[in-house]
Amino acid sequence: MNRKKYLNSIAVLFIIFACSITQFAQGTYPKMTESQMVLQGDKGKWDDSKVHTFSIVEANKDGYKYWGYYGLSHYGGDPSVRNAGLVRSNDLVKWEKYDGNPIVKGDCRWPSVVYANKTFYMFYAEYNSDNDSRIVMVSSKDGIHFGDKVEVVARETGKQNQNPNIVFNKKDKCFYLSYYHGLERDIVGKDGKNLKKFWQIAIKKSKNINGLQKAAPKTLLSADYTLASPSIAYYNNKYYLIVEASLAGKWDDKWVTLGYECDKIDGKYKEVSNSPVLSNNDACAFQHIFNNDLYIFYSHCLNLDKWEWELRMVKSTK
């Protein structure tokens, strides 16, 4: 072998080795089971074909181990159709709807719930007539009747503060609220030109859940295309962040769920090598850890034109 061929061979081996190291360092999202449908709207009822988000707490209350709170896909328009419902289960697969649904009526989108100190805390987004959004918190002792509304993330003119996801981090015993902050509409600036659109994933931290109101936000991710709906879970000594994404000309023009990992809950997240982790018009995902298993409850689109969805679930495999 002459010197040139030898050097070329060395270069190729180096590239292969470097790529292997990069892939190894990048990490992967845990392997998941095949999906199964767990919740649909009732024909002709308030939730018909619009079941969209699903937040679950392990409450062990009134004969049910798991209490699930679901929201609808309505975005903009009449606020009276944006309601939240309650379902309960003992196996995370078969869910019974509460007879008094919806439990939160009017302008309640994306309910996310944490159960702490024998109290249910629900975070959700509210909208004005221009579709500018803010995040509020309500609380309940029985998990059904919520009140004492407080603003946690204020409304900003022309911008979105929505898609809340509340978690309690056992490692540092702090509450973390992640959410989507961005500018997704055509807004004209003072110079007469449209402001640049952006999508960011922000997070707030507090030892006390009421302290989230004044906590300063930190940006975890930023993009110039649709990137929203964050969910964070700690599993196998890693923090996993998943977000929904959409970009014309990419991912076969479908909604997907991207995956990221980090050693710190509010640290610098890196996309996993097997991202997107859900790819067939699958979005609005909530991660949960139950019985040492990682679950994703997510919204699968049945008809994009009619904006019809159902809730599905996958879980980690051993």
Which features would summarize this protein structure in a list?
Tachylectin-2, Chain A; mainly beta; 318 residues; four-stranded antiparallel beta sheet
Textual characterization of the structure:
It contains one helix and 20 strands. With 318 residues, it is mainly beta. It has one domain (31-315): Glycosyl hydrolase domain, family 43 (Tachylectin-2, Chain A, 5 Propeller), CATH 2.115.10.20. The strands form five sheets. A four-stranded antiparallel sheet has the order 1-20-19-18, with no helix packed on it. Strand 7 (119-127) and strand 8 (133-140) form a beta hairpin. The longest helix is centred in the N-terminal third of the chain and has 24 residues, at 3-26. It is globular.
H/E element order: HEEEEEEEEEEEEEEEEEEEE
User: Which second-level CATH architecture applies?
Assistant: 5 Propeller
Main sheet summary: 4 strands, antiparallel
Category from helices, strands and their pairing = mainly beta
Any idea what the radius of gyration is?
A: 21 Å
Spatial shape = globular
Briefly summarize what is shown.
By secondary structure, the chain is mainly beta.
Set out the fold topology.
Blueprint: H1 3-26, E1 36-39, E2 51-61, E3 64-72, E4 84-89, E5 96-97, E6 109-116, E7 119-127, E8 133-140, E9 147-153, E10 160-169, E11 174-183, E12 198-206, E13 218-223, E14 226-235, E15 238-246, E16 256-262, E17 270-271, E18 282-290, E19 293-303, E20 308-315
Antiparallel strand pairs: 1-20, 2-3, 3-4, 4-5, 6-7, 7-8, 8-9, 10-11, 11-12, 12-13, 14-15, 15-16, 16-17, 18-19, 19-20
